Amino acid sequence: MSERPDAPDRDTLLAMFEIQSRIKLCDERFRSLLTSGQIQLIYYSPRGQECISAGWGVHLRPDDYVVTIYRGLHDHLAKGVPLRELWAEFLGRATGTCKGKGGPMHITHPASGLMVTTGIVGSGIPIANGFGIASQLDGTDQVTVVNFGDGASNIGAFHEGLNMAAVWKLPVVFVCQNNLYGEHTPMAMSTGVEFISERAAAYGMPGVTVNGNDPVATWTVMGEAIARARAGEGPTLVEARTYRFYGHLMGDAMEYMDKDERKAAMEADPVVLYREWLLANGHASEGDLAEIEEVITAAIDDAVEFAMNSPFPDAAELYTDVYAEAQQ
Ligand SMILES: Cc1ncc(C[n+]2csc(CCOP(=O)(O)OP(=O)(O)O)c2C)c(N)n1
Ligand SMILES: [Mg+2]
User: Fold this and answer.
1) pLDDT in tens, 169-221
2) 276 lies in a domain?
């Protein structure tokens, strides 16, 4: 097993805060523009799950790969997808990461290493293995982090994919963001184990459960799994326990969620608690953190304006970049 990384230094702590804040502030802007009717799109809020992406985000290199799901805004931002192109793609504009043809469920930006966002539950796992095989064949030490939900861990592709990754020692980190619900079903009603990380044992890889709302614990576990993959020691299954603040998707009445459970989770908002922790432990001053937030807010203002003023794709573009040219 690779050595446990040391505690995060101040720059890393602040980098995690920056990523978390970028996610929180982007999410708040999406929800406010949606509820005021200024934009229309399908939106799956990742609010509450910020620490997980920040935890792996600060360990990855620009040339590492990330795969995520429809609830992926936090992962896109943690991998560094630029705000203007991200917002434009969410709004279906021609200036977006996929020229407006992917939309929120299919954000893809290879230049940042955000290789694919999928809407089919579990489908990112075999794709991530493909990136892992590519890194092995190319002889690089690039790592792939694939994010998926607790619900996805009951899909066949999860089991086949983990087995293959273990057998071939692929440089892939499987990050199960366990927010305790799959669509409208609580995890306990659909999953036979208490901890999804237990499933790793069946495939001969390490499995670890971490409190995904604890930034430092998450950073430590992610660092270990990423270092292991980079060293050619094979994959790890990380189960990061968290909570989904706003139901499955925007507009969800959330009647199936326990009100007290949700209230308690929102009162223990991991981004707010982390901010307080940074201040209480002297890692940053109020001014330092406020400045980070102001810079992000200005960048979001700019990205929203850019996206709103961008054209929709032209109808003549319908088939461009959709099919590969036939080889003669
Ligand atoms: C193969 C497949 N089955 C069903 C669906 C419908 N569906 C969309 S999201 C979802 C729940 C997935 O839950 P989870 O994996 O926990 O991710 P979360 O939304 O909680 O982040 C389901 C069943 C789908 N998109 N794909
Ligand atoms: Mg879930």
Assistant:
1) 999 999 999 999 999 999 999 999 999 999 999 999 999 999 999 999 999 99
2) yes
Å from CA of 174 to ligand 1 middle: 17
How many structural domains is the chain composed of? 1
Looking at the domain assignment, is residue 125 inside a domain? yes
pLDDT in tens, 205-262: 999 999 999 999 999 999 999 999 999 999 999 999 999 999 999 999 999 999 999 9
Q: CA separation (Å) from 204 to 165, 197, 199, 220?
A: 10, 12, 9, 22
Per-residue confidence (pLDDT) for residue 323, from 0 to 100:
82
From 42, 73, 118, 183, give the residue whose CB has the most ligand 1 atoms within 8 Å, as the site to mutate.
183
Asked whether residue 1 is assigned to any structural domain, the reply reads no
Concatenate the DSSP letters of all residues of 208-224 into one string.
EEEETT-HHHHHHHHHH
Centroid of ligand 1 to alpha carbon of 182 (angstroms): 6
Mutate to test the pocket of ligand 1, among 121, 160, 179 (most ligand atoms within 8 A of CB): 121
HSE-CB at 87 with a 13 A cutoff on CA atoms is 24
Ligand nearest to the CA of 247: 1
Give the domain CATH number at 59: 3.40.50.970
Q: Which atom of ligand 1 is nearest to the CA of 153?
A: 15
